[in-house]
Amino acid sequence: QLVAYEVKRMRAEEGNKQNILRHIRELAEKLYKNENPYPAVTMHTVKKPKEGHHLRVQQKPFPRLDEGLVQWIIDQATAKLQTAPPAVKAEVKCMVPSGPPIAAIMERNGNAMANSARRLEVVRNCISYVFENKMLEAKKLFPAVLRAMKGRAARQCLTQELNLHVQQNRAVLDHQQFDFVIRMMNCCLQDCTAMDEHGIAAALLPLVTAFCRKLSPGITQFAYSCVQEHV
């Protein structure tokens, strides 16, 4: 059913996180109901008497039960059970159309991979322009780089590329380069999740203590002073 009915809807929702999450919740609910068709049975717990309860004088005697009344209640309940509908729902069989061909779905995944590769290329090019002092080209690509930071692969690519420049002894930046690198790091950390804490955020730690700029003779500002507010 998912393949048959939902592919168009999923394509329409691409890029809208709210709709995607709502859709996932709906699917999760359907799957849960499918696995757990019967509601949970509540168990009645009987409290244990406290210690020394038998020594108390003010105990009330248990009342005598009316045999006729008890039998009447049992008969009423039995009559209700006999007329009640069956608890298990009868399975409704239906024909599900085949939906779009598998090739269409594979093609869509291929496009997604190509898009991902293009984003990583944009990140690499922008960082190269920054370090080559081609600021006009870097500015053109910068909005696309910030958008790409939403993806985990792009965040990893950023840490790897910056690490390469540190290894080439290119950690001391001028003011414009420093500004670009800080903005990329801030955007990367802003989009990090708890899953990235020991990966991307940890990979950035040595980099923020390496990249710096000279403010005046004898005074150096390191990158960590601009990104240390992130959780």
TrEMBL record:
It comes from the Eukaryota. InterPro entries: SBF1/SBF2. Pfam families: SBF2. Residues 99-231 form the SBF1/SBF2 domain. This is MTMR5 protein. The lineage of its organism: Eukaryota, Metazoa, Chordata, Craniata, Vertebrata.
